[in-house]
Each structure stands twice: as structure tokens, then as C-alpha cells.
Amino acid sequence: MDTPLSTVAVVGLGTMGTGIAEVLARAGREVIGIDISEEAARLAVASLETSTARAVERGRITDEERRDALARFRTFSDLQAAADADLVIEVVHESYEAKQQVIRALDAVVRPTTVLATGTNALSVTRLAADSAHPERVLGMHFFNPAPAMKLVEIVSSVLTAPQAVEAVTALARDLGKEPVAVGDRPGFVADGLLFGYLNQAASMYEAKYASREDIDAAMRLGCGLPMGPLALLDLIGIDTARTVLDAMYAESHDRLHAPAPILKQLSEAGLSGRKSGRGFYTYEAPGSQTVVRDALTPLESATATPGRPVRSVGVAGSGTMASGIAEVFAKAGYDVVLAARSQEKADKAKARIAKSLARSVDKGRMTAEARDETLGRVTPTGSLDAFSDVDLAVEAVAEDLEIKQELFATLDKVCKPGAVLATTTSSLPVVACARATSRPQDVIGMHFFNPAPAMKLVEVVRTVLTSDAVHSTVREVCVKIRKHPVDCGDRAGFIVNALLFPYLNNAVKMVEQHYATLNDIDAAMKLGGGYPMGPFELLDVVGLDVSLAIQKVLHGEFRDPGLAPAPLLEHLVAAGCLGRKTGRGFREYAGR
What we know:
Number of strands: 18
Radius of gyration: 27 Å
CATH superfamily of the largest domain: NAD(P)-binding Rossmann-like Domain
Number of domains: 4
Number of helices: 22
Distance between the termini: 49 Å
Mean pLDDT: 95
Strand order of the largest sheet: 3-2-1-4-5-6-7-8
Helix content: 40-55%
CATH architecture of the largest domain: 3-Layer(aba) Sandwich
Shape: elongated
Strand content: 5-15%
Structural class: alpha/beta
């Protein structure tokens, strides 16, 4: 199998097959495109012509390079055309029957040294290889859509795969400008194995009517920096495809997190598979269109709501990074802010932190020195909550400890005037428990800001069963005035973002525990294959392993799902004091704290 893989056949010229063919042709390979549909072959050629013309317009390739690439791509309708290929990549329909039929037919056509790669993202490569006359040459080569743009390629070995075959396709992937990641054979591999569990939970969250589709998607885009929300991504991938992947994952893991949400079955069986059908979680302008159009579930912008209460002054309780960040946000928006800490000294330090942040904004040209001075002048530091006696909105950002928060809310209840809104920034504790510490639970609500508060646009607005309509409207109106995006959710552990984010992080830890893939490969897979701004282990070390473990315990305690139990490795690292960047060591070691 010592071959440069200079001639490659691609079987199946759908979106993925066409994309792979383009990548190969532009990288100098002779590409044989095979599809039983003449229309699919025609569309593949047209797609390559269009995309290479666009590349010329943008100065990425020359006219001559475009002509050469087009000349290297030929299409056929018979597998016999693959006879001289060094590598065959099949990307036909995601079913064992279809793929095994192709592999058996290729056994009779290609040379014994030809490598056979399956593009499956859900099926067992071992099972496909075992059905071949030469299982040692069969492996997985999982590209991500769109193949020309996405850098990740998962190279999947079975126990039957020859090392030479793996080496050959790994070298090819690098030559194509891709980042190959070596993984073992299990459903979903690395990227989809982590991604689809998260997507499934988002579908379940929507199905339970916990939050709207728009709020779930906005929360994950703005709270985690993801390029797409989970429900929009399911529509792009195809709801039928997602269901197939999850079925395969559940068959192996028996983890309830992988059991496809019933809504996925309902939508796929109704033919509502997402963008390709014109309707899935959202409705699209036409089948294949990416333009979302209004439907019966689209919220009305002009919907009448209970009027909110006037808010002119805001109290922020706390002296940490979150408290000073929230105070800065309100002051920038023109509110008078009382910043209360346990002592005047701590309050003064918190205001000094705000001054440094504003100075950086001036240095970067984001605000004038005059605006900085005006903003800072609106912040009054104090060592006593008594100064909250006249605020219209009190926001606490103290330690994430229920007893501490309940004690604080009992004090706010005594200090704040009637009608003042009392908000907690908790990320994992029950808001209603804070509300019950007061004599006015109808005035208590959650306002979960994200760190750093001045930069992050999302605020989760957490309404309890006791929160009044007027308080809910007040907080949403305030969020708009401080230029944040509010999303509504109920009072349950994790709200939207943490309830979806931390099980994904926990599952990544389990992958490492099981020696399925390395930290570096998992981080690379999620950044390159999922579009995540940080890999899961990078993020865990930034958030803090102790914080992550605490949130995971809260989720497990509330939902009682065995799949949400904290990974033992996470617990061991926390017990050892390896908490991430703040201690110099977490999943990785750092030069300094």
C-alpha cells in the first residue's frame, strides 16, 4: 500500500461527495466522480465550475489553476470507472445496505492495493470492513460539511485496518490542507460523538417547551460564541441524518443523552428534515434555501406585554469581576449605580477595576475620555447595602452559595423600597429559593449575565413560578437598554447555556478517560469540525474545573440522569487541586497562574 494516492474515485456526488471532489481536484489529484444519477453528476460539475470561478474572482487561484482543476474532474455512472484508482472514498446514502453494496462491488473492480474509505459519520467502520474481501484496506475518512472550507478530517481505524492504509490517507489529508485526527471506530467518532449529544439535548429542551427555538439558538450563539444555534444546525445537518447518528450512538452507549428526542422522529417521519425539505425546526423560503421565513411559531415583535416598572437607579451587590462588570454595563447605559461590597475598601477596589476597564476602552478608541469620566461618575461605591434603599433594581453578584444568597436577599427585602426588582445572577442555583427568602417573591427574578459582562451580549432572564409579569417585562426592557440580548427560560438547573454546555464538556472528559482520543485531538476536532471558539479542555481550564464540577453536580442532582454524573477524572483533578489556569494546572499545565 505504498502509494501516493494520486488518482481518487469519489462514489456519490451529493453535497459532500461534490465538496470532497473539489478539494481533491484543486489539490492536484485526478478525480473520478461516480454516481448512478446523471443529474447528480451534472450538478457536481456545475458546482465545481461555479466554486472555482468564485475562487478566481477572489484571487485565491488563477485562471490556469481553475482550468487544470476542472480538467482533472471526470464523472461516470458505473463503478467500473474506479478500476485504476489508488483510493476510493464512498459517500453514498448513510445505510449499511447501501455502503456494503458499494464496497462489495468495488472489491471486484479495484486493485488489491487500493484503499477503500467510507465517509460515514454514524455507522461502524469495522462492520463495513468485515464485509469486504480485503478488510485491512478499509477505513473511515470523515470529512465535514462544507468539505472545501472545513479543515477537520477524522481518520477512523478498525481493528482490521492496516497501518499503511492509515498512513497513506493521513498523508493525503495533510496534503489537501486538512487537519487529520486519528480516532477509533465508535458511532459519532469524536466531533459528532460530542456534537450530537448536545444537539439532542437542545431538541429535548425545545420539545419540553422550556424555551423557544429562537431563545435556545441565541443563547448558545451569544453565550458560547458558536457560529450557529443547535436547532438551526440540526436543520442544516438534516433532522433525519441526526436521528440516524443518534440511533447508532445509543445502540452502543445506551446513554439516555443519546436516545433521539421524540421530536426528531416526529419531524423526520413527517418529511420535515430541515433546510433540504424547506421545513424542520424552522421554516425556509424553499427547499435547500438558508433563508428563514416567518411561520406560526415566530414570535411577534409587536406582541403586547405587561408594562414594566420605571428603572432609573441600579444597585449591584458584590465586589468580584462579575459585579464590577455588571456595574460597568449599567453605568455605560446611563444608569446611576450603587456598588455595594462587604467593606468600603472592597467597593473602592471594585470601582478601580471598572476604571481600568474603561481606560482600556479609551486606549482602544471605543469611547472618549469624557464618556469614561461620565460613566465612572455614575458609580457610587459603598460598604453597606443600606445604600440600596432607593434603587429601582437590585442585582446581586456574590458567591455562588445558596445560604449566602438567601441571607443577602433577606437583607435586600428589608432595605429596598416597595416595588424594587430584586435580581440574582446565579448560574446554577434555584432562583425561587432566593425569592422565598423575601416577603415579596413576585419581585424576584434571575438575570444571568455571562463573563466578561461588558463584552458578552447574552442575559438569561429566569422567571420563577412566582415572578410577576411586570417584573419580567421590566427586566427584559432593561436588557434592551443596556444593549444585551435577553432570552427567557424557566427556573431549573443550568437554565439554557449551562444545561447544554456542561454535559458536552463532561462527555469530552469521559472520552479521555476511555483513552478514545487525546486532549489535543478532541480540542482540535471541536474547533475545526464544530466551529467552537475553544476546545472542551481549553474551556474547562479557563472556566475552572471546580466550577465545572459544581455545575455538573447540580445538573445531575436535578435531572437524576446517570449520563449527567460527573466524570471521575474531573472529580479526581479537582480533589488534587488541579483546577485549571488559576492554579497553573488542570487538564494541561501552564507557565504561570
